[in-house]
Known about the structure:
Blueprint: E1 2-3, E2 9-10, E3 15-29, E4 33-36, E5 41-45, E6 62-66, E7 71-77, E8 85-93, E9 106-115, E10 119-127, E11 153-163, E12 166-173, H1 194-197, E13 203-212, E14 215-226, E15 231-234, E16 237-240, E17 245-257, E18 261-271, E19 280-287, E20 294-311, E21 314-328, E22 341-344, E23 348-362, E24 365-384, E25 389-408
Antiparallel strand pairs: 1-2, 3-6, 3-7, 3-25, 4-5, 7-8, 8-9, 9-10, 10-11, 11-12, 12-13, 13-14, 14-17, 15-16, 17-18, 18-20, 19-20, 19-22, 20-21, 21-23, 23-24, 24-25
Amino acid sequence: MGASLCGHAQEWKPDMKxxxxxxTELFADTYKGMDAVHDAYYLFPLYAGQDAExxxxxxxxxxxxxxxxTRMGVNISGPDLFGAKTSANIECDFGxxxxxxxxxxxxxxxxxxxxxxxxxxxxxQYWHPFSGGxxxxxxxxxxxxxxxxxxxxxxxxxxxxxxxAFSVMLAAASETQFTSKALExxxxxxxxxxxxxxxxxxxMVLALTYAKDALEFGAGGQTKRIKPxxxxxxxxxxxxAEEFLTTFAGNAYLSYKTSKFSLLAKGYFGQDxxxxxxxxxxxxxxxxxxxxxxxxxxxxxWASYINLVYGTKLQGSLLAxxxxxxxxxxxxxxxxxxxxxxxxxxxxxxxxxxxGYLIYNFSKIKFxxxxxLTSANYGVGTFDWNxxxxxxxxxxxxxRLIFTMMxxx
Length: 409
């Protein structure tokens, strides 16, 4: 039984369809990485310095067998409301909440959709609206192409309007598992998303899409505001922080897909895209010694990739991606102990990847074999305070072999 908005009883029987897959994967790496879910989600090699003989400490092989990426979900068809068809989706996996605590059920998607003839409204958690269209690259790894493809799920209110081949999307989003980083770990810092929460405004995304037959093209813009600190401390004492950081970004993508062939190319350019799994962040630009009050400057980054897939029962896939750190907008503050920064490894100059995969689809079972070569160039040597970059770089390189079996239901 359910109740309508007018208070009258209304009977309806929800149509619930369960789905998911059991995913078991074996992978081997040559370099420890920026990762999660027992290395199943691998971004790029993580440089941790060198030993007494000049060998990279993290350049050590490792192998993992895991089923933590197993997933389950349910689609629910509901009653007509406000002249719209309604539906809901709940999806979970066993990815945990941190690298330390995998094997914990976590929320992936939880949303309600109102669908009219030419528009729809989504309320709840879903893929971040800045992902750029409904397409993601076809790869073997759980990272789904990150850090070149944005990777983030976010609570949001999203409205899409359709007219022929064109559509417009406007969304307001917050953060949960993928968050903007703050500069403090005080006693009130009990949640990882307090930087966006204290910014008081949701992240705003606007996108335009053209889709006809096999072709889809889209472009969008994004802005967010965070508050890096709640208090500052100087020689005169501790004060409530007042400074915010507002950033902007844009993206564009092209997709072409037929029954046997698909091409997907995407590009992102913007400031502090670390909450979307793209390298960068921000840093302290100025500091008042008396009150500790600070101003902030963002790192500007860009990321792009191309993904080619051919085949149906037997598929071959290639991906090439590159992400670069262009440095800070303004000069950084010299604290005497190095720059004060936050984000996703803002000391990385660039990341690149080339990878290939073979996928065999047999009924409800999928077998995947793949190879990834991922390189990250870390800044070393002389630091330039004007742009937050280094004069030289040190390459950390990982070779990954991955074999996966998925049973879908």
